[in-house]
Amino acid sequence: MTNNSLFQKSNASRLMELGKLAPDTFKAFIAFDRLALAEGLIPKRTKELIAVAIAHVTGCPYCIEAHVTAAKKLEASKEEIQEAIMVATALKAGSALAHGLNGLNAYDGAEEDYDLYSRSNMLRFKEFGALNPETFKSFNKFDMEAMKPGLISRKDKELMAIAVAHVTGCAYCIELHTKKAKELDISMEEITEAIFVATALKAGSASP
Length: 208
Known about the structure:
Layout: H1 15-21, H2 23-37, H3 44-58, H4 61-73, H5 78-108, H6 125-131, H7 133-147, H8 154-168, H9 171-183, H10 188-206
């Protein structure tokens, strides 16, 4: 019987073929990936939890398995993995809602030229509450629960949120969570490290 699965665990071993087909580029990526996930201002364990969150946004099953396994080896608990996944879920859902601000503008059909990513668009969030109050309220409650400190600290969740926001490409989310990180005295160097984890995971999800 033919196996029709497009994702088999054994397929991961074929990554080395990329090294033969484009050796210099492959070596450069592997070196970058290792540096991005290495111990820095953000501990390696935290970076792996950030990677777990991002992998659940890119949807790469190989990345999910690799980084959950790596986080487990660094003694991250199943509960912490779940918290990271919930942050990813909140950010991915949040980016859809935030992009809905652009949807409101498109629906209104403004004829004049306007900035598609204007900060002033944020003022329209209240319209979601008016159009669908119960669902909007429910999402906000979930988002607050996902981002509140638990086994993973508020600081680490904000770094996670920034990283995920750079993968979803939501400009509103990037600005919001960078501001929250600054309020928590998270340095630009730490934020940059989180962004490089996001960069490595987004690139890594393309290679399988």
